[in-house]
Every structure is written in C-alpha cells, then in structure tokens.
Amino acid sequence: MSSTDPVPDLEAGIQYWATQPANYDGVLGGFGTGPLPRVDALGSRRFLLELLPELSIVPSPFRSISTPVSETRRVRALDVGAGVGRVTSDVLLPLVSDVVLLEPVEPFINEARSRGKASESGIEFNDSGYRVLWKGIADRSKSVTFFKGTPLDRVGYLPPDGEGDVDSKFDVIWCQWCLGHLKDDDLVDFLQRSKKALRNAKSVVVVKENLCREQANEPMSIFDDQDSTFTRSDLAFKKIFEEAGLKIIREKIQHGLPQGLYPVKMYALGEA
Ligand code: SAH
Q1: Which ligand 1 atom sits nearest the alpha carbon of residue 81?
Q2: Which residues are paired to 154 by β-bridges?
C-alpha cells in the first residue's frame, strides 16, 4: 500500500452510520428482515459455546454435571460498535450475565436504550419480528450498560452497594462488522487494549467480519469510500492479530448467509 492510498476516517464512518435507519435493516445494510440475523446470531452463539461450554444453560449429555459458571460468578461481555444492540440481545444476553454496549452513533444507541428500557418494563417492543424482550432484563438477573464514550444508562441487574462492576474485566469482547473503521495501526492498538481488558486465560476477543479475497497469498485491504472502511482479507487480519500479540484460538466461516455477500469469518483471540 502506498502512502497516498485512502485509509478509513473515523468521523466519516460515524457520519455515514448516522444517515442509516436505526434498526436491524440499517445496521445490516438492508439484510435485517431476511434470514441473515437469525443465521448470524445462531452461528455466533454456537461459536461462543464451543469456546466457553460452561456458558451453556441446558444440561449437556457430553459433559459431567457441573454448576454452570454463571451460577458461581457473573460473566461479563463487551459489545463493540454495537449498533442498535443486535449482538447484545441475540448473542450475548442469552449466554452471559452483564453486557457493556459501546456505540458512538446517537440514533443507534438511543434505539438500543429504548429496547433495553422496554425490556425492563416488560413491554414487547415489536416492529419486525426479532427478539423483543431482552433476556434477564425484566427480572433484573442480567444487565446492559450503555456507553457512548461515557456511560449513559443501565438496565436490569445492579450490583449490591459498594460492589460496582464498571471497572471489571471482560470474559468476552465481541467486535462485529465495525473493525473496518479502524486503520491498521489503530486496530492493533485497539486489540492490544482489548487484550488487557480480558479477565483470565480463557477470556476471548471475538472478531466477526467480512473478508475480501487475496491475490498471490498476500494480505489485502479494500477501501470502501461509502462508509470509509477497509474490508480486509484473512491474512490481513492474521498479520494484525499477530502484531497485537493475540493468538487465534478458534476460527470459523459463518455458513448459511445469503449469496452475493462477502464471506464472513469468526476469530476467537486470546493471550498468546
Ligand atoms: N455490531 C453491530 C452493528 C454493525 S454496523 C451488529 O452486528 O449488528 C457498524 C457499527 O459500527 C455501527 O453501529 C457504527 O456506528 C459503529 N461504528 C462506526 N465507527 C465506529 C467507531 N469508530 N467506534 C465504534 N463503533 C463504530
């Protein structure tokens, strides 16, 4: 890449998203009402369960009966570039106890908060047939804390007085369809900071992103000036993960998505 090639501009990216509708269709580029959200969320939950089988809430015939980890301590996840809270509601809350939702675009985070608030009041928030009540919020067994740079709001579970959890580390940091907004050195820096925010040796950063093709087995990045992002190839991601000092624990293609889209891959990264 030469120094004059375009690179993602954070502000341009945020401005692009602010023009998109604050719903599943908006964050998924028009694929919000077809099978994609279900296929994607199912693939993500399976991937997470393969990594952390102790998050399973159903008894498994394949492992001895033991107390699920969520009954012994709270399991915490960070949803990065969370949009309207799709991954939070459909992937993370079904499996973990507390989610921190991070989203810079005002209409998106407001929509996520409205959904969270509605769930807290037990109101079915129904506009297009996807999960309407966020798991564990009405009964306050689980929580979501909303961050737009600074903390904005929280729904559901509150820790007992004096046991605030905002500075706690994470068992899972989930980054989906948003890392293209960062240029390479910023992405390395972000992943290094994420690594420091992991709770223990089993904790993971999950990256779920589109992949472009490679030519001659060389890392590739394609710039898209509509949303000011890079679409990276498999080797481009792997080079960045290595620079960030993260090891690939598991990698898997998301099958079953509509034809004509970029292939989508999940990587679970942990301490090298
Ligand atoms: N991860 C969500 C949303 C994907 S859309 C999902 O899978 O449903 C991409 C998201 O990245 C948008 O919500 C957009 O606002 C967010 N985003 C854009 N620039 C960002 C930045 N610099 N930091 C964090 N998030 C960003």
Answers
A1: 25
A2: 145
pTM of the model: 0.94
Ligand 1 atom 8: residue of nearest CA: 86
Pairing of strands 221-224, 264-271: unpaired
Question: Nearest-CA neighbor of 51 among 28, 83, 77?
Answer: 77
Q: How far is CA 271 from CA 4, 185, 195, 234, 248, in A?
A: 34, 19, 7, 20, 9
- Alpha carbons 240 and 187: distance in angstroms, whole number: 7
Closest to 263 in 3D by CA, of 212, 202, 228, 197? 212
* Contacts (Cβ under 8 Å, ≥6 apart) of 27: 20, 83, 84, 86, 108, 177
Q: How many CB atoms lie within 10 A of CB 93?
A: 26
Report d(CA 45, CA 265) in Å as an integer. 14
Q: pLDDT digits over 147-173, tens only?
A: 998 889 999 999 998 788 888 999 999
Residues 212/223, Cβ–Cβ less than 8 Å: no
Q: State in Å: Cα 119 to ligand 1 middle.
A: 22
Q: Ramachandran region of residue 111, left (φ > 0), alpha (ψ -120 to 50) or beta? A: alpha
Q: Which two tokens stand for residue 152?
A: 């904005």
Take atom 18 of ligand 1 and give the residue whose Cα is closest: 14
What pLDDT does residue 132 have? 77
